[in-house]
Design goal:
Layout: E1 3-6, E2 23-28, H1 30-34, H2 39-56, E3 60-65, H3 68-74, E4 80-83, H4 88-95, E5 100-103, H5 112-120, H6 128-139, E6 143-144, E7 147-148, H7 180-195, H8 212-230, H9 250-254, H10 260-272, H11 278-301, H12 320-323, H13 333-345, H14 350-364, H15 368-378, H16 384-395, H17 412-418, H18 439-450, H19 452-455, H20 462-470, H21 474-484
Parallel strand pairs: 1-2, 1-4, 2-3, 4-5
Antiparallel strand pairs: 6-7
Helix pairs in contact: 2-7, 6-11, 8-10, 8-11, 10-11, 11-16, 13-14, 14-18, 15-16, 18-21
The structure holds iron/sulfur cluster (SF4).
GO molecular function: lyase activity
Region (Disordered): 150-176
Keywords: Lyase
Length: 489
């Protein structure tokens, strides 16, 4: 059987054709020289690779080299195959190699041909909700015959509750226990830092699964103990509870340790047995076979030029305090806490990403491509494919609506409603002007004002634009925000 070269995000059994297939695993140091990744992300990836090599034993050739090219020269002469890699750079590299066969991608629920057929049939109107319904039907997930289980496709309306005062009723997630492989990874990363390789963020105990066993333990625990509370509070934020009832499965999914359809089937079984409510299960299923797959396919469908899209002419560089995760400098409680979460864990859930970090960048007009790079490097689950459309299309609205219907800009009122941040903040979420002006509230009006001409045709923000026209203090807000610039708020 031909030897399968597995990249570091292809580590589950579904990337092999048979359990005993010979394997090649490569640890390339050059990857870590190219970008300053979060220290905990570097640890997770190396730990996962080394754990997989240990599991496979003499079934795998495991090479630690400076580059992939150097590793391939060591095994030259032996034919290899590889599943379609997850970045353009890696795809182009493997396609140019002699003796290496590139197979279709794995690790996603929808195959490329089905996506292209769906997208081409939309005539330029791509919406995740439509793709998700198509996937539910095609994959027969949460369906009762031809109709969605429970009669509705989307139960989002039940899933937007603010955080409960008593905390989210979910058991804490199980955390991995580090072993001697992690000790070796930490020693190597310390040495690499001394040699000049840069990382961002703080080191800390490994918080995310590096093996399939750990990933399945987290998935089982989530479905049994946390899924019921996931849906209602999936958009809420609590300063003292970064995990809430989220699955914390994005990192092992993106390492390829879990097959997303397996996770979906387990969640659906919980609904069918009465162990979890449909709203929670539907929300989780939508994240996996809806949003995750949609983002993956758009990365390829939109082509290489999409990453440089900048329809809102956002030309300011990401400031150093944000780039370097200097959370302690900030007085804005929400942003300080979320940035500290990125620094200390390399992870915050999707609402802090979208409505605290992305929202702030969108309001200030920071360059979308720099934001993509920042998310890619700073999150344990960040990869080019996952961050490109999430940031360019959704969070920064740089494609002017090619994949979403409106910009995700919001003032402090949204953050106040969906979190407990504002109570302890020195700013006032209702205020847009003066020393207590919330940077999000002032930034929201400033964003609409700056982009009025580019957003005029968008019906979903028509009412906000009419409110903007009625603001008597708009000139003063404009001056205030120009003076605030990109200073840490
Ligand atoms: Fe964030 Fe504004 Fe609320 Fe402070 S008042 S926590 S800056 S939204």
């Amino acid at each position: 059987m031909i030897r399968r070269w597995l990249f570091a995000d292809q580590l589950g059994p579904h990337f092999l054709d048979a359990p005993r297939q010979p394997v090649l695993l490569v640890e390339s140091k050059a990857v870590f020289r190219r970008r300053a990744f979060h220290r905990q992300k570097a640890h997770l990836v190396l730990s996962a690779l080394r754990h997989r090599a240990a599991e496979l034993g003499d079934q795998a050739i495991y090479l630690r080299t400076e580059t992939y090219g150097e590793a391939l020269r060591k095994v030259s002469g032996e034919p290899l195959d590889v599943c379609h890699p997850t970045s353009r750079r890696a795809l182009s590299f493997v396609q140019d190699l002699d003796g290496v066969t590139v197979l279709p991608p794995r690790g996603f629920a929808t195959d490329p041909a089905s996506f292209v057929t769906w997208a081409d049939g939309r005539h330029g109107r791509l919406r995740m909700e439509d793709f998700y319904r198509d996937a539910r039907r095609r994959l027969d997930v949460l369906m009762d015959g031809d109709t969605p289980a429970g009669g509705k496709w989307n139960l989002d309306a039940e899933n937007r509750q603010p955080p409960p005062a008593s905390g989210v009723p979910a058991a804490p997630p199980p955390m991995p226990v580090e072993d001697e492989i992690d000790e070796g990874v930490r020693r190597d990363l310390d040495r690499w830092e001394r040699e000049g390789i840069r990382f961002v963020g703080r080191d800390g105990p490994r918080l995310f699964p590096a093996t399939r066993r750990e990933a399945l333990a987290r998935l089982r625990h989530f479905v049994e103990h946390r899924l019921p509370a996931f849906g209602p509070y999936e958009d809420a934020m609590l300063a003292d509870d970064p995990w809430m009832a989220h699955s914390l499965l994005s990192a092992p999914l993106n390492l390829g340790l879990i097959d997303p359809l397996d996770a979906v089937h387990r969640a659906e079984a919980a609904y069918r047995s009465g162990a979890a409510p449909l709203s929670s299960v539907e929300g989780f299923v939508r994240q996996l076979i809806g949003w995750r797959d949609y983002i993956w396919h758009l990365y390829w469908y939109f082509g290489s030029g999409y990453a440089a899209t900048d329809g809102l002419r956002a030309t300011r560089h990401v400031p150093v305090w944000f780039r370097d995760l200097d959370a302690d400098e900030l007085e804005a409680r929400c942003l300080s806490d979320v940035l500290a979460g990125v620094r200390d864990r390399g992870w915050v859930h999707h609402i802090p990403r979208l409505m605290v970090l992305g929202n702030y960048a969108l309001q200030r007009g920071w360059r979308p491509a720099e934001i993509v790079d920042w998310f890619h490097r700073s999150f344990v689950d960040g990869y080019e494919w996952v961050m490109t459309a999430n940031v360019i299309g959704m969070s920064q609205y740089a494609d002017l609506g090619a994949m979403t219907t409106k910009p995700y800009a919001a003032g402090g009122a949204y953050i106040n409603r969906m979190s407990d941040y504002c109570r302890g903040c020195r700013y006032d979420p209702r205020s847009r002007l003066g020393v207590n002006a919330c940077p999000y509230t002032a930034g929201y009006w400033s964003f609409l004002d700056r982009n009025r001409g580019r957003l005029l045709g968008n019906a979903r923000i028509g009412q906000a634009m009419r409110q903007l026209d009625r603001l008597e203090d708009l000139g003063a807000v404009r001056d205030q925000e120009r003076d605030r610039g990109d200073r840490a708020p």
